[in-house]
Automatic annotation (TrEMBL):
First-listed, main subcellular location of the protein, grouped into a coarse class: membrane
Protein name: Phosphatidylglycerol--prolipoprotein diacylglyceryl transferase
GO molecular function: phosphatidylglycerol-prolipoprotein diacylglyceryl transferase activity
Pathway: Protein modification; lipoprotein biosynthesis (diacylglyceryl transfer)
GO-annotated biological processes: lipoprotein biosynthetic process
Family designation: Belongs to the Lgt family.
Length: 265
């Protein structure tokens, strides 16, 4: 686990930022490949990757600051953009990234749902690589295992500052592995007939379910909302419900459109 790869003078090159940047670039490459395979919109993928990647980073940071750590950052406003301290919420990144992508698609008259379906596997692939960055940085860590097994983090990490030398559950590692599993499932899903928009809805459902379960092992945020679930779990429940409704609606809409087409012919 290496937070600092090397220094240029006094300026540190952090593994977190480098791996996160690489994850955005590779995820954009995956989206480009899928768009070429789909036969449309590949010429827009690089621009979408840049705009959505940057806005996703901003959204992930602001979501963490305002929904998870505002009690701290309201007194340390100058540290809000200090992402290397830890604190990036993927839910906020996906939300702002998707909003940015929708605005781009509208401006360039691109089928929004079709592009979302193309990008869904790429997004979850990027998330999986992003968890590697979390591991190297010592954030998004798990709770103490209560035994002699688990990850021991260096003293320079947020995980160590929170729990000391206790072994912690490898929550970020398991989430990364589940992200890659979801990536494979989404690629498999593309091989079967489905309504437009359902691939993206399936991505949201699968990730929300995985994140909900893994939150029981996370140790960075422990406060419960309404005494029931953690904040990320509440977000996951809402996202899953909305995605399930969207999945069903997309199937219904395509069925209705098929009926209209059949009648006109």
């Amino acid at each position: 686990m290496h937070q600092y790869l090397f220094y240029i003078g006094d300026f540190p090159i952090r593994a977190y930022g480098l791996v996160l940047s690489i994850s955005i670039i590779i995820a954009t490459g995956v989206a480009y490949f899928l768009a070429r395979q789909d036969g449309r919109y590949h010429e827009h993928v690089a621009d979408i990757g840049i705009y959505c990647g940057l806005s996703g980073l901003l959204g992930a940071r602001l979501w963490d600051v305002f929904f998870f750590d505002w009690d701290y950052y309201q007194h340390h406003l100058t540290e809000i953009l200090n992402v290397w301290q830890g604190g990036m919420a993927i839910q906020g990144g996906v939300i702002l990234g998707v909003i940015t992508g929708i605005l781009y698609c509208r401006q360039h008259k691109i089928d929004i749902l079709a592009m979302m379906d193309i990008c869904a596997p790429a997004i979850i692939f990027g998330q999986g690589l992003g968890r590697c960055a979390n591991l190297l940085n010592g954030d998004a860590f798990g709770a103490p295992t209560g035994g002699s097994f688990g990850i021991l983090y260096p003293q320079t990490t947020l995980a160590y500052h929170t729990y000391g030398a206790q072994p912690l559950w490898p929550a970020e590692i398991w989430e990364g592995q589940l992200d890659f599993l979801i990536f494979g499932l989404l690629l498999l899903y593309r091989a079967f007939p489905h309504a437009k928009g359902q691939a993206f809805a399936l991505y949201v459902m699968l990730y929300s379910a995985a994140r909900f379960c893994l939150e029981y092992l996370r140790g960075d945020y422990t406060e419960l909302v309404l005494g029931i679930f953690k904040s990320a779990q509440m977000t996951s429940v809402i996202a899953f419900a909305l995605a399930l409704a969207a999945f069903i609606y997309c199937a219904y809409r395509e069925k209705q459109q098929g009926k209209k087409t059949h009648k006109t012919t």
